[in-house]
Amino acid sequence: MLALVLLAVVAAAAAQNDTTPPRPPAPRHEQFRVIYEWNAIDFEWASPEDREAYLNTSRYIPQNVLISGINFYGENLFLTMPRMLDGVPATLATIPVHQSNTAPKLQPFPSWSDNAVGNCSALQFVQNVEIDKNGIMWILDNGRVGTLTQNPDPKCPPSIVLIDLKSGTNVMERIPFPANTLNSNTTYLNDLVVDNRDGDYAYITDNSAVDPGIIVFRRSDKKSWKLRDMKSMTSVPDATVFRVNGTTVNLPVNIDGIALGPQYLTEDEQVDRKVYYCPLSSYHLYAINASVLRNESLAQQGEGALRPYVVDLGTKASQTDGMKMDSNGTLYFGLIGNSIIAEWNSSVDFHVGQRTIARDPNYIQWVDRFTFDDQGNTYVVINRLYNFVKNQVSVNEVNYRILKSHTGSKSYVFGEDVTPPSTPQQGAAAAPTVGMSLVLLALAHLLA
């Protein structure tokens, strides 16, 4: 009897002191369905004559325009078209969220002139964008164009470009990366996440073939640095071959996808977050604390400095390109070789927590990027990249799709802000004290 009472006391005390909110149950997913699809990408031209002029001068080559990135804000989906080949007239554009046409023409954003090739004040090569909780669009502009051609043009520097979407003026603030952070001739700014804490940080994957790493950019003082870990950020030979829909392609691509987990308190009561990443040509998912990436001194120490802090979470069934985490810590990612969209609740061990939520070899052919809207919907870009890199795109068949499912999710940028515990106020501290007093009183009565 005494043992049972003591157990009750311990349980009551734990209940009084446990302030961690329970993680909400996983929502029941709708089936992913196609909302947009294109054989080839076309644009809202100023006039039919403009379109004809672009076609005649090879400034617009339809089969060379590939959709890669996607993001949501307001009434629009923002799409990126990286200029890996010639003939891509705009590298950032919008389409409406609400479906009116299954193959809408894209509206260059912010404008046609802001997408002019060769104008280093305009957008040159946008692989991905992120939109933070304050309505700021963060644009990765590689600068160098024609990365899949014989003679890439490095005229313009790689930059972060910021646009305040809330203002509606769409003015671009361009911050070029300094030469001591990256090599403009070899860098490939692939994807990013934004951490709206302590002056706003971006964590960016650079899947450079010769110098892969994670670039950290701090908006408050526009400073950046790069961290490297060859073991976790480099492609591995047994994962460079991709087999999709009967096509085989060899792509030894380094660090690629990146995601940012929810805020949490460390053992020493500091706020931190997990940064998740993986090479495209790898079966592993890795994690590192954001606080480690923010440590600029580690960037000066070179290769090996990050190694003690990198966690190998385990393997996936296939390779992953883009991935994104929601505000509750659920990671959405693709398994390219299996034609699968998957998810993982990051509060569960990665080895057992992965779950297939969609599989279709006809419609899910190379999962690229994800985004969430403000109504609980998840969107994913399917772009058949394997055909694009082999120059086998046929405009007589569907090459690009956007799928949508109601998952109940919202973006990680809207995750709960966690604050370190402070000295409790007298009134706040009284409740647990009274609760424990009642427990002790009951215990004394039973033992009397």
Please outline what is shown here:
It comes from Manduca sexta. This protein is 16% helix and 32% strand.
List the keywords:
alpha+beta, 448 residues, disordered N terminus, globular, 8 helices, Neuraminidase, 16% helix, disordered C terminus, four-stranded antiparallel β-sheet
How would you characterize this protein structure?
The structure is a single chain. With 448 residues, the chain is of the alpha+beta class. It has a single domain (32-409), classed as TolB, C-terminal domain (Neuraminidase). Helices cover 16% and strands 32% of the residues. It is built from eight helices and 28 strands. Helix 1 packs antiparallel against helix 8. The longest helix has 22 residues, at 426-447.
Secondary-structure map:
Blueprint: H1 2-17, E1 33-38, H2 48-56, E2 70-73, E3 76-80, E4 92-96, E5 107-108, E6 126-131, E7 136-141, E8 159-164, E9 172-176, E10 189-195, E11 201-206, E12 213-218, E13 223-227, H3 230-233, E14 241-244, E15 247-250, E16 255-260, E17 264-265, E18 271-272, E19 274-279, E20 284-289, H4 290-293, H5 296-301, E21 311-315, E22 323-325, E23 330-335, E24 340-345, H6 350-353, E25 354-359, E26 367-372, E27 377-382, H7 385-389, E28 400-406, H8 426-447
Antiparallel strand pairs: 1-28, 2-3, 3-4, 4-5, 6-7, 7-8, 8-9, 10-11, 11-12, 12-13, 14-15, 16-19, 17-18, 19-20, 20-21, 22-23, 23-24, 24-25, 26-27, 27-28
Helix pairs in contact: 1-8
